[in-house]
Amino acid sequence: MAKSNGVVLSQNPFFTSDLPARLDSSFDFYTCDKLTSVEQVAVEKDARALLVDLQRISDGGHAQAELLENLQAHLPDLEIVLLTDEECPEPLERVAACTRMHHVRGNVDIGMIAEWLEDRIGVAGRAAELGSADASESAEAENDDNPHGISRAFHTNSPRLKKMLDELEVAAQHDVTTLLIGETGSGKTFLSSLIHQVSPRRNDPFLPVACGALPSDLIESEMFGHVKGAFTSAHADKEGKFLAAGRGTILLDEIDVLGLEQQVKLLRVIETGEFEPVGSNTTYKSQARLVVASNLPLQPLVEQGKFRPDLYYRLNQLKFEIPPLRDRKCDIPVLSKKFIKQAAEKHKIAINHIDESLMTALYNFTWHGNVRELENVIQRAVIFCRDGQLTAEHLPDHVLAGIAGPMNDPTAAVPRPQPISDASNKLDQQMALTEREIIEQTLFKNNFSRTKTAKNLGISRVTLYNKMKKYGI
Predict the structure, then answer these.
(1) Angle at the Cα of 101 (from 24 to 63), degrees rounded to 5?
(2) Domain 160-321 CATH (choose: 3.90.1150.10, 3.40.50.300, 3.60.110.10, 1.10.10.10)
(3) Residues near 308 by Cβ (< 8 Å), separated by ≥ 6?
(4) Is the pLDDT of residue 438 over 50?
(5) From CA 35, how far away is CA 337, in angstroms rounded?
(6) Average pLDDT for 330-348
(7) What are the extents of the domains in the chain?
(8) Which residues contact 304 (CB under 8 A, 6 or more apart)?
(9) Same-fold call for 4-121 versus 327-404
(10) What angle do CA 314, 315, 321 make, to 5 degrees?
(11) Is the separation of the CB atoms in 322 and 180 below 8 Å?
């Protein structure tokens, strides 16, 4: 079988080494560490795929956007995977929305990227963890025979959550739209991917759409696609997620940010499957299964006139609420051990002993950031463990002090620590505590974007960085 060539633009070994290891020998990768050499290498190697890692660019993204446009003009069949931070520079946001490429924001699941390459490029197979085709077939057969795939993969000791997962297992087998309600970091995206994996559609694509990360004028294009000339930056036709997913699954995350007009079009897709790309009169019919998620309960938004009642009642038929981690503390030990193992393997750090003091501190903390916050705290602890003995001393100061961060509700007050001496009542310390709370709340309201937070606070980014460092944020 002829090999397929790919190019990686990155200085991160996570992509230059780990990704090729996930794919078999039918795919060759060529690495570039300079923007200027990408196009030349892609043309010379007749590349079929390009991974562009722009997660840590320091400029405005104009040169990178121009490169991507040139590549698509000269190599129209090139499949491009674009990696950016959650806060994507506007030029890259536009070129991603107006061209045919796979845009991944924030944390990257390298396994999903490998699967996407296989689906779109036709790679013979991935070097799966099981190590052989026979093992893969056996695992697939096991999934077919296993009626509790979600319960097995979504670790929980909570009876309430176990019951919900069993019900979700049943819903996953049917072509019904599912609504997930849960705070940020509670596991909605992970649970959505599990719904797809145990459903009859598991061999088709799973495509998440982060509605909250997209400008409002681009959400519709991302979902339904657009035709050339539909708006200023639409230089070519673009296939939206409802077509690209085929018979797969689409996750619409943060559904609550959709405008009323977009809600009408979404309701039509749910009920009839029909939609038109932006700027087109051609009607298409989606065959994808839809999972929608929201950080906020939808009923108050209906009462405020921000969410259509007909769409609400349509989604509310199969609604599943994921309880926050603070309401299922019995899950903290099992999740902690899982994350410790994952972090140790990822960073190649030997953990020989987990001290009880660490588990006690984790259990007693109020996790306003839910499972995601727990995972990040544990990863930090593992990174700073050098003697193989993981103890509470490796945890951040705010966890040891019991100072929880802002809650998912931006209007909620952050609990203040109790004063431990008369000195804590000094005016300067009280002012510092208030300043920290203001910074944390503003970070949360802006999805932890430092640029937007600094702008809202009326300070420079450098000043914000210094204050965050000062308060250990």
Answers:
(1) 110
(2) 3.40.50.300
(3) 260, 263, 264, 267, 302
(4) yes
(5) 40
(6) 90
(7) 4-121, 160-321, 327-404, 416-473
(8) none
(9) no
(10) 150
(11) yes
CA dist., res. 209 & res. 249, Å (int):
11
Report DSSP state, residue 86.
S
Rounded Cα distance, 314 and 336, in Å? 37
pLDDT at 127: 31
pLDDT at 12: 72
What are the distances in angstroms from CA 268 to CA 223, 260, 261, 265, 283?
13, 13, 11, 5, 12
Torsion sign, CA atoms 302, 305, 306, 307: positive
Q: What is the pLDDT at residue 134?
A: 37
Q: 370 with 325: CB under 8 angstroms?
A: yes
pTM: 0.59
341 Cβ contact list (under 8 Å, min separation 6): 351
Q: 32 has which bridge partners?
A: 9
Residue in the structure block whose two tokens are 């061999």: 203
Topology of domain 416-473, per CATH?
Arc Repressor Mutant, subunit A (1.10.10)
- What gap in Å lies between CA 22 and CA 257, rounded to an integer? 36
pLDDT at 389: 93
CATH superfamily of 4-121: Response regulator (3.40.50.2300)
Which residue carries 């991917």 as its tokens?
Answer: 193
Residue 109, pLDDT score: 67
CA dist., res. 51 & res. 31, Å (int) = 10
pLDDT digits (tens, 9 = 90+) for 104-137: 877 776 767 776 676 666 533 333 332 333 333 3
Report the distance separating Cα 60 and Cα 177, nearest Å.
Answer: 39
Per-residue pLDDT of 6-30, as tens digits, reads: 777 776 766 776 676 666 555 677 7
The one-letter amino acid code at 368 reads: H
Average pLDDT, the chain: 79
Q: What is the mean pLDDT of residues 36-60?
A: 81
pLDDT tens-digit series, residues 440-467: 777 766 767 778 888 888 888 778 877 8
Q: How far apart are CA 348 and CA 85, in angstroms?
A: 25
Pick the CATH number of 327-404 from 3.20.20.70, 1.10.8.60, 3.40.50.170, 3.40.50.2300: 1.10.8.60
Report the alpha-carbon distance of residue 53 to residue 82 in Å, rounded: 6
Using an 8 Å Cβ cutoff, are 212 and 254 in contact? yes
Q: Residue 98: which of 64, 68, 120 has the closest Cα? A: 68
Element spanning 146, H or E: none
